[in-house]
Amino acid sequence: MFLQIPDITPALTDSIPSVREEVSMLSSLPVDDLIQRLVNSVVSFAINLGIAILVFYLGKFIIGKIYRFISNIFVHRNLDRSLATFVLSMVRIVLYFILIVTVIGILGVETSSFIAIFASAGVAIGMALSGTLQNFAGGVLILLLKPYKIGDYIEAQGYAGTVREIQIFHTIISTGDNKIIIIPNGGLSTGSINNWSKEEYRRIEWTVGISYGDSVEAAREALMKIFASDNRIVTKFIDDHRAALALKAENDKIEAGEIPTETPEAPARRGLFGFLQRRREKALEKANAPLPTPSQILNSKPADCSPAVRVAELADSSVNLKVTVWARTSDYWDVFFSINERIYNELPAAGINFPFPQMDVHINHNS
Predict the structure, then answer these.
(1) What is the C-alpha separation between 45 and 60, in angstroms, rounded?
(2) What is each CA distance from 56 to 37, 79, 91, 108, 267, in whole angstroms?
(3) How many CB atoms lie within 10 A of CB 177?
């Protein structure tokens, strides 16, 4: 594929007047007219120069404001430092280019030829780097919108692994067997991403098959005992874990007497002691407040996250129980494998049998 760049030589030639024509025209003018024309040209150029200087400094001031505004947005968004520096440099270059072209136009210099040259060069560069620019734009979107961050376990573009680095053009992930996968950001920004680490809690499911004739209630009771003995399984969501830890630390200080207390009958005091008293009352109020329900924390979370055992299927050889519990995302695999092992070891002790696939064969002796 060949890129055809338009020929702008005639435009440049037409925009530059012939020196001979100018000299011959000036030589034919009277001295007074020549002086008058020179004076008018100098005055006109001085006015245009003053306007150009004013526009330049005004544009420079506006560019500075725009630059600081975009920089503050990047700081507020915690954008990657290298990407923020690169984007800000590009913004400044583009704005100064527009300002310089505007100033040159005010001075009376024809700018259409310059714009045509830069436009043609921009088209050529854009077509040559279309894939790279797509990856760059994808990296900007990922760093701004943050669908995932370093340390998240994601599944995208047919790969799954932990995010190691988010670069401008690529995202680097490491798989479970420690393979390094480099994925272009263009596909990540436009494709589907499964972020396993986005939510703080995840539901864990098992399908447990028991024999026909075994008690479902006995199996449920045995499973519930297993879940009750594992403190990694949660029954209530705490949306902000850091706030919960801070509240616990505050309560520990109150119990240890680090925050002065006052009897209920004593009047409230001003100053430092009154401030500490009000702080203690607020901390006690938070400590005694009931935990928010899951639906209050996030509407998409279920109203009840207690462990559940339900009959899912009456299969050919077994009664399949669907077992669901909730745990923190960081504990997902540990809980899954450990509970798997405990189900296998402890359910037979409760009189629950795991059936093998069975087939009844009837033989007709009369034939």
Answers:
(1) 22
(2) 28, 31, 17, 15, 67
(3) 6
Alpha helices in the chain (DSSP H): 9-15, 19-27, 31-76, 81-106, 112-128, 130-145, 185-190, 216-228, 241-256, 271-288, 294-297, 332-346
Q: Where does residue 239 fall: left (phi above 0), alpha (psi -120 to 50 degrees), or beta otherwise?
A: alpha
Q: At what angle are helices 112-128 and 130-145 packed, to 10 degrees?
A: 80
**Residue with token string 């596909």:** 187
pLDDT tens-digit map of 47-90: 888 888 898 899 889 998 998 888 888 888 777 676 677 678 77
- The full DSSP string for 5-50 is PP--HHHHHHHS--HHHHHHHHHTS-HHHHHHHHHHHHHHHHHHHH
Distance CA 216, CA 347 (A): 12
User: Could you give the CA distance from residue 209 to residue 352 in angstroms, rounded to a whole number?
Assistant: 10
Beta carbons of 320 and 312 less than 8 angstroms apart = yes
| pTM (predicted TM-score) | 0.53
Residue 304 β-bridge partners: none
